[in-house]
Amino acid sequence: MAKNNLHQTFHEIIEQHKGLLFKVARTYCGNEEDRQDLIQEIRIQIWKSLPKYDANFAMTTWLYRISINVAISFYRKYSIRRQYAIAETLPPVIDQLPNDLQEKFNLLEKFIAELNEMDKALIMLYLEDKSHLEISEIMGISVSNVGTKMGRIKEKLKKRFLNHKEN
Amino acid sequence: MNDTDLKYLWQTGNEQIAISQKSDKTSLDKLTKRNVSHFLSSMKPIKIFTLLVGLLWVFSIGYVLIKLTINAYDQVSLYFIYSAYFQVMLTAVAVILYIIQLSTLYSIDFNKPVVILQKTLIKLKASTLNITKILILQLPFWTTFYWNESMFKNGTLPLFILQGAVTISFTYLSLWLFFHLKFENADKWWFKLLLQGKEWEPLITSIDILNDMEEEVGSDKD
Question: What is the pLDDT of residue B214?
C-alpha cells in the first residue's frame, strides 16, 4: 500500500470507528486524562499495525484486538493509577437520556469497571452484539469457553443490579 | 434485568457518547513524534543508566582482563582473573538479555488474539526475572577474586573455615535462588521480601494476570 493511501486509510478507519475506540477506552479508564492517553496509544498501534492488516479478518475484529490489547497493556503499566480508576465513578457523558436510563447506564459502566481485564473485554464485546465466534477470534479462546465465561459474567452483573436495587 | 435490557442500555448509552464525540484530527506526524517520545519516556532514566553502566562495565573490565591475560598472565592471581572473567561474562549475558527483552517489547505486534498477545507480553516482561537470576549467579565470584597462593600457603585454619563458609554459603544461596526464583513462588515470603519495591510491582501484577490467563486457556482444554 502506498504511503499516501495508507495515510488516507488510517484516517478513514479512525473516523469510521472512533466510537469503538472510545468505548474501549471508557471501559478501561475511569478518568478523562487517562482515556485520552489510551485513545492516542491505540491510534499509534493501529497506525503501526496497518501495513500488516489481514483482510481475512473483519476490520472490527482487527480493531478490537488492537484496542483491547493496548488497553490491557496500558493499564497494567499504570497499575497504580488503575486502582484509582476503578474506585472512581465514570463521569456521565450523556444528558439526553431519561434520568432512570442514565442512572442504569452509569451503574452498568460502574459494575463493568469492577470486573477483571479479561471479563471487561468479554462483556463489552457481548454488549456490542458480537457473536461468540467473533469474540473467540478477538480473544483467542474457544467458542465454548466464551459461552461459559459469558454466562458467569452476566450472572455477576445481574446480581450487582439486584443488590443495588435492594439496597 | 435480562440480556436484551443490558444490550439496549449499553447501546443506547453509547450512541449518545458517539454523538458527543468530536473527530480527533491529530496528524500522523504528531502521532509518530508521540510514539518516539512515548518510547523514550517509557525508557525510565534508571533503565538507561543501568544499561549504560552494564555496557561500560563489560567493555572496560573485559578490556582490562584481556590485556592482563595477554601481557601479564603469570604475574596476576589466577583466582582474580578467572573470578573476574566469570563475573564479566555473566554481566554480558544479562546485558544482552536485557537489550533483547527491550527491543522485543517495543516491536511486538498488537494484532494478535488478546489472550495470546497478553501472555506473550507478560512472559516477556517477566523475563526480567531471568536477568536477575543470571546476575545472582555472580555472587560466589565476589568471594573468590581476592584469593591468592600466598593465602593458601600462609593462612590459618580459622581463615580457611571463614573463607570456606562464606564461599559455600554464597554459592548455595545463588544456586538456590537461581532455581527457585520463578512464577510459582511469587506468593512465598522470601520472594516478596526480595522483590519488593515499585520497580517490581508491575511484574508482580503481571504474574497475577498471567495466572488468571492460564486459567482462561486452561479451561479451554477441559
Answer: 66
